[in-house]
Amino acid sequence: MPPVSSHEFVHILSDSLTLSIEQGDPVDILNNGDEFMVSFLRDIDSARFSINIMIYIWNAGTMSDQVFEHLNAKIKEGVPVRIMIDAIGGAGAMKRQEFKTFKDLGGKAEVFNSFSAAPWRFVRDDKRNHRRAIVIDGEIGYTGGMAISDTWLGNARNPEEWRDMMFRTTGPMATDIQGAFAELWASVTGEILTGEIFFPHVVKTKASAITYISLASTPSPDSLLMQKFILLSLFGAQQKIYISTPYFLPDGSFRDILIAKAKAGLDVRILLPNDFNDSPGVRCTSQKSYANLLENQVKIYEYQPTFIHAKSIIIDGDWSIIGSANMDNRSRKLNEENIFGISDKAFSTKLENIFIENLSHARQIDLAQWEKRGLWQRIREFFYSKFVQQY
User: Fold this and answer.
1) Domain locations along the chain
2) What is the pTM of this model?
3) CB-based contacts of 340: which residues, under 8 Å, 6+ apart?
4) What is the percent of the chain where pLDDT is above 70?
5) Phi, psi values for residue 356, rounded to 5°
6) Which of 141, 121, 124, 152 is nearest to 57 (CA)?
7) Distance between start and end Cα atoms, the chain
8) What CATH architecture applies to the domain 26-204?
9) Predicted local confidence at residue 223, as pLDDT
10) In sequence order, what are the residues at sequence separation of 6 or more whose Cβ sits closer than 8 angstroms to the Cβ of residue 139?
């Protein structure tokens, strides 16, 4: 692959994966729940034609109450509102009173792949909808790592407030996010969303536009489109690779390219959660790869104040990958995901500055100290790694 900074890189990525190259509006980075909720609720209040929300988790609590208060007000004004959550991530949500009230007012709420114990449904049940696709009037779009749960409120000031990011955009990128919503909405409900209230005519943006490639991936063990998108991006790195992910389960191909780049002299850094983690099994499995990476000059950091759920890849300060996907097996081949690869130095610089700031609250893992970890830790790594294909 040519360098990510080159004109050829985006075209090779586009041609290899049959994904189009687009020009879009600048992207706003929203840190933690405080920034996201102010922006999100303001945009809900401004809605005139449609509100579509697709997220993995929807838990009862203050955040849910605030969102429903604003959504219900828009329904009463005549604005159609659609919500889709995942059957596992939002288990039991539809039975709660707030969803019943929402639907009684005329809101539409659906569940992706309702769980069934029937053995012939197992393969289907294992495929989950992890996309983040929130769209207002077809003109404003959000994606990133957050969902609806009180752990995403606040400003990451304590272990009860998670560290995360959402990304707000307008214009063509919002259209792509709407497409990620509409595709799965149609597959579950049979309702095909068309027309100006969902897909308004977008005026092509000005000279300040960013170049991007959008990917809404559907699980397939044959194509592995998400994996190839990220791998080709990593191959284009010439100077540095900065990865932030809550779930880090690199397979052989990812480990090989990270090690090869680090041994070639690139600055390869990976920012992960510490013990503040919602999945101890994933954390132990992730730690099993630490020694191999550290021995080969890859730097690993663990964020200390709270659980860091932010997802981003920044390469050479020129190319960034944002969206719903983690660096684990589920995102590679089991989950519905949506991401953007963005070629824009100004955006990458902002994202890189946030990454560096996060590192100031992280502890770097030292290889010599890591090799002294106890037998119980090693046993846990070995045990949980046997379930890696389900993480």
Assistant:
1) 1-25+211-391, 26-204
2) 0.94
3) 143, 167, 173, 176, 212, 213, 214, 215, 321, 322, 323
4) 95
5) -65, -40
6) 152
7) 29
8) 2-Layer Sandwich (3.30)
9) 79
10) 170, 171, 174, 200
